[in-house]
Structure formats: structure tokens, C-alpha cells
Amino acid sequence: MKETDLTHWQGVPRPSRSVIPGRYVRLEALQPSHIDDLYAAVSGPEQEQLFQYMFQAAPASRREFTSWAHQCISAPEALYYAVVDQDSGRAEGWQALMRIDTKNGSIELGNVMRGPLLAKTRGATEAFFLSAATVFDLGYRRLEWKCDARNLPSQRG
């Protein structure tokens, strides 16, 4: 493998809030219009299981979820995207670009949530790919994704 010369490295731009289109899903910067869909996607009988590896607890109410979503929308340190199904137009999950280090070209894909209609589908895989392609197209040198050691389904892929 050829070693890359970084003597002229200038850093990379921060990802934008533009829509990232795919074949099965599109990534849209999280906004208030996504809240109803996302709450519906994650507030069913599987709610506790969905949130077991997340930093935030499962929301006890729509009001609590709405408050959390507004914090994500305005978070200066991360960029949250709703994962919107192309056919239905509904937001079925979310993911964030976080720990954004434009100076060193490093970024993390995290806070990944897939509602039951999105989990384990081509759309879920594509959502991950769309983020990866976007950050590498911007010139980032490193994309990090971390998995909780207890999350065996995600470790299996």
C-alpha cells in the first residue's frame, strides 16, 4: 500500500445538512417534522430492547422524546440525520455524525437507531453506506464506528 504524504494536509470541511439520497433511504438533517415518525418508530413494544445499547434511555413519553430530539437538532458538536424510507416517506430511524474533527479528518458514526421497519433491511445498510461515502468524499481520513461489547447482533453485522 502506498503511504500518503500529509505534509500539505489542510483539513476537511464539516459535513453539511444537505439531503443525502440513496436508492432505499435518504438521510435528512434531523428536524422537527421528523419527530412524529421517529417517535412512532421507536415507541412500540420493542422499545426497551431498541434502547438497551444507547446512551439515552427509552423515552417515557412523547414529550420526553421531543425534548431529546430538539437537543439533537441544535447540537453543535454532532449532526443528526433522520433515515427516511424512500417509498413511504417516513423517518424510520436516525444516526449521527459526531466527534467531528475537521483538522485531522476524523469523524464518528454513532447514536445509530433503527426502528423495527428499518432494522436488518437494505435501507439500514444503505444508511450506513451513505454516511461513509459522504465523509470519505469530503476527504475525511478516518471514519469510526463503535459497537457496545454486549451488542452481539451488531457485532455479527
Identify the notable features of this structure and list them briefly.
157 residues; alpha+beta; Aminopeptidase; six-stranded mixed beta sheet; 5 helices; 6 strands; 29% helix; 24% strand; globular
Structure, described:
The protein is an alpha+beta fold and 157 residues long. The protein has five helices and six strands; from the N terminus they run ββαααβββαβα. It has helices at residues 35-42, 47-50, 62-73, 122-137, 152-156; strands at residues 20-21, 25-29, 79-85, 91-101, 106-114, 142-145. The protein has a six-stranded mixed sheet with strand order 1-2-3-4-5-6, with helices on both faces. The chain is globular and about 55 Å long. The two termini are 27 Å apart. The model has no long low-confidence stretch (mean pLDDT 92).
Question: Topology, please?
Answer:
Layout: E1 20-21, E2 25-29, H1 35-42, H2 47-50, H3 62-73, E3 79-85, E4 91-101, E5 106-114, H4 122-137, E6 142-145, H5 152-156
Parallel strand pairs: 5-6
Antiparallel strand pairs: 1-2, 2-3, 3-4, 4-5
By DSSP (H or I, 4+ residues per run), the number of helices equals 5
The residue-averaged pLDDT reads 92
Radius of gyration: 16 Å
Number of beta-strand segments: 6
Low-confidence stretches: none
CATH class descriptor name: Alpha Beta
CATH topology: Aminopeptidase
Corresponding CATH superfamily? Gcn5-related N-acetyltransferase (GNAT)
Spatial gap, N to C terminus: 27 Å
Structural class call reads: alpha+beta
Provide the succession of SSEs.
EEHHHEEEHEH
What share of the residues lie within helices? 25-40%
Which sequence of strands runs across the widest sheet?
1-2-3-4-5-6
